[in-house]
């Protein structure tokens, strides 16, 4: 009898986590590796949030809670959606999970059956397709292009939808590209979705507060209220509030879906960390004064990285609207050979050679469903980013 599940064969480990782990191992072995693969802010969690967690510990708030979150946090989520997005929910329409990933996974597990399809724009966050596969569904990936700013068109979305489509996963600003859909671009997509009433929308808004220049964030149910009853609007405190390790994500949507997600969570992890929940209450209800200054830092870093990478012959680096990633194309480098003798046949070969010969860890584009590219996370100091880009410049200059 086979011991391991067949479903396990349908998925692979997260490439970004694998690269980050490898970079850490190389540093531990004495290599001067610069890791630009981790998707987390380098800022510390704000003091008011840490103090709220300490108060919760001192008050003895260390017991089990409801499986999908305390009432205070659910109300804070409702207030956040009303304040920031003009979306009105009740606490019964809110689910709180152990990070944004669990929220997405619960929704897919609660809704997908064999044969169900999920449309995912590419490039995509590495976990979307594999979570769909684990839940028994089939990912249908729709490739965007550099020319469209890494955004799919309404025509592409229309062509990808079928009678088997259950979900459309939407992420703006995007991981890995930082591309964001303006209101009119999103409205064009929601117009398509209105013509397909059997398709639900899963909007991953994790980078909502990390937007630059003249970009204004918007989310599908906000742009098209007719989609409210079939949209799960997902978010979390990880990125904007520098709380990646606290592991709190949340979503709001139709109550029957939220009830189904609660059932999944009650039989898997049960409640998120109680202390983290109280910290998240403070994150959402407390001062938001640090969001704009932090975003300004990320914008400066974005401009620094783009200015340095854009000098490299054969590399094209579009300007992101948000998040803290750039997704350069290396189409002009394919077919060359590194100084160490590695043939640059694709973006994975490029990333491996860059790590081995220049001690810079990035994630190859194939991991995100679109090549030939690589992702850099610029959630690092100016000094680290400058040195990393200098090494990438030297590595590329030595290609022949």
Structural account:
It is a single chain. It is built from 13 helices and twelve strands. The chain starts with 14 loop residues before the first helix and ends with a helix. The chain has helices at residues 15-28, 47-58, 71-85, 100-111, 127-134, 154-160, 183-194, 220-223, 255-266, 274-285, 291-309, 347-358, 382-397, and strands at 34-35, 94-97, 117-122, 138-143, 165-171, 200-204, 231-236, 249-252, 325-326, 360-361, 363-364, 374-377. 50% of the residues are buried. Helix 4 (100-111) runs parallel beside helix 5, helix 4 (100-111) packs across helix 9 and helix 11 runs parallel beside helix 13. With 400 residues, the chain is α/β, with parallel strands linked by helices. The strands form three sheets. Strands 2-8-7-6-5-3-4 form a seven-stranded mixed sheet, sandwiched between helices.
CATH second-level architecture of the largest domain: 3-Layer(aba) Sandwich
Q: Give the SSE order as H and E letters.
A: HEHHEHEHEHEHEHEEHHHEHEEEH
Number of separate helices: 13
Strand content: 5-15%
Give the name of the CATH superfamily of the largest domain.
Type I PLP-dependent aspartate aminotransferase-like (Major domain)
Structural class: alpha/beta
Q: Tell me about the largest β-sheet.
A: 7 strands, mixed
List the domain count as a whole number.
Answer: 2
Mean pLDDT over all positions = 96
Distance between the termini: 52 Å
Report Rg: 21 Å
Could you list the spans in which at least 5 consecutive residues all have pLDDT below 50? none
Q: What fold name stands as the CATH topology of the largest domain?
A: Aspartate Aminotransferase, domain 2
| 3D shape | globular
Q: What is the CATH C-level name of the largest domain?
A: Alpha Beta
Tally of DSSP β-strands? 12
* Helical residue percent band: 25-40%
Task: Going across the biggest sheet, name each strand in turn.
Answer: 2-8-7-6-5-3-4
Family: Belongs to the class-I pyridoxal-phosphate-dependent aminotransferase family.
Catalytic activity: L-aspartate + 2-oxoglutarate = oxaloacetate + L-glutamate
Protein name: Aminotransferase
Enzyme class: transferase
